């Protein structure tokens, strides 16, 4: 009983924050401020910290498979949330299709960014350290006719026009999590029934959102790469705006899955569900 009360209090507080109108309208501005001013944290953080190593387990376990973690937690929450209200698999799949669209967009942009880096880049061979080295930077000799994969396999250095895919992914996942979980607060205010599994999934999504923001701050503070990270974040924000602030506003149809909560945050539907749970 005690643990259930703690779960209810925590999820209610988180749902109230994420469902707040000001938070929903200005979260992307907060994320933009993090992207712009986050690299300034490199002046204060210690570069001997465990987070200053790319081999840290948080980067290896979560960052390299960030989209997978987001799909598992957000997809489970969307399906359980929509199915518990409408009891329709097709309706739940329609809401889940937003994840499929975002995933397809992410894959397309990653492919284009790799193509851009391959097209604009060149392979270089670093010379051994010697008296000709200035400022601690080794001299590089251009290697003609090498592709990026061949260059890296040979242990050489590839230099090209780069956009940070990690920052792009983290920004897109943060905005997607904020959008998809923001419907839980209005649902609770309308008197919707929320069992422990749904609340646990919602809380896991909130914790994942906090983790993505933390990892984003770590990347900006310990591995500042301007303007590649800023471009990656801008691409993530533009992807979110094009989907959630553009296409999804057209309403549910055969070509549009609709916005989160559309067809679910209905007082009559929720009241009927509430009455059915009471009678049981």
Please provide the ordered H/E string of secondary-structure elements: HHHHHEEHEHHHHH
Q: Give the strand order of the largest sheet, numbering strands 1, 2, ... along the chain.
A: 2-1-3
**Total discrete domains:** 1
> What does the main sheet amount to?
3 strands, antiparallel
Mean pLDDT: 87
Unreliable stretches (pLDDT < 50, length at least 5) are: 272-280
Distance between the termini: 20 Å
Pfam family, one: FIT
Organism: Xiphophorus couchianus (Monterrey platyfish)
Protein name: Fat storage-inducing transmembrane protein 1 homolog
Function: May play a role in the formation of lipid droplets (LDs), which are storage organelles at the center of lipid and energy homeostasis. May directly bind to diacylglycerol (DAGs) and triacylglycerol.
Written account of the structure:
One of its GO terms (cellular component) is endoplasmic reticulum membrane. Its main location: endoplasmic reticulum. It comes from Xiphophorus couchianus (Monterrey platyfish). GO terms for molecular function: coenzyme A diphosphatase activity. Keywords: Endoplasmic reticulum, Membrane, Transmembrane, Transmembrane helix. With 280 residues, this protein is mainly alpha-helical. Helix 2 (21-37) packs antiparallel against helix 7 (165-181). It has helices at 2-18, 21-37, 57-63, 66-86, 89-120, 148-153, 165-181, 184-189, 196-222, 228-244, 267-279, and strands spanning 122-126, 140-143, 157-159. The protein starts with a helix and ends with a helix. The protein has a 3-stranded antiparallel sheet. The chain contains 11 helices and 3 strands; from the N terminus they run αααααββαβααααα. The model is unreliable at 272-280 (pLDDT under 50). The chain has one domain (27-43, 58-128, 137-278).
